[in-house]
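input
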Amino acid sequence: MANEVCRGSGCVNAVHDVGWDTALGGSYNLSSNFLYLFRLPQLAHSAKLLAFGAYGNSATGVNAELALYADNGSGTAPGGSTALAATSSPLLLANANAEQGASPANYALSANTTYWLGIVVQTPTTIYTQTDPTEVGTAFANPYGTIPWPAGTSGLGKSGFDLAIYINVQDTN
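output
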């Protein structure tokens, strides 16, 4: 079956989320025109990127863009020269889970590699969050509508919590 991958003595669902895909216990205020970036857990297996997702908790819909970035090699900040992939069109955040396809589609992700997931919103809103003392994050001033590259600018420390943002992937091995 295309949605399963077999390893060792068993088969598992190849399609899964990486990040925080549920209504977490707290709430965080996202300011407009700021790119919030958080380090994702490493993938155990190579995969292809299918979609981006977020779990907002505001009663009104707000447009958001999400982007995936490479790591700087030390696990402390994004690195590279551009976003690897981004939402194919704006994602409408509301009090629910929402997903949007990735562009480019099926971007190849490597196992045991650190990636960073970012979100920028058009107008201020709230999103689910939880405390996580191991999480590393940052934020950069950035206008909505332009998926940026944050290198070379000073980020605002945003470590210590998880936002309800994630990527949806399909394992390829």
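quick obs: Residues 128 and 153 are 27 Å apart (CA to CA).
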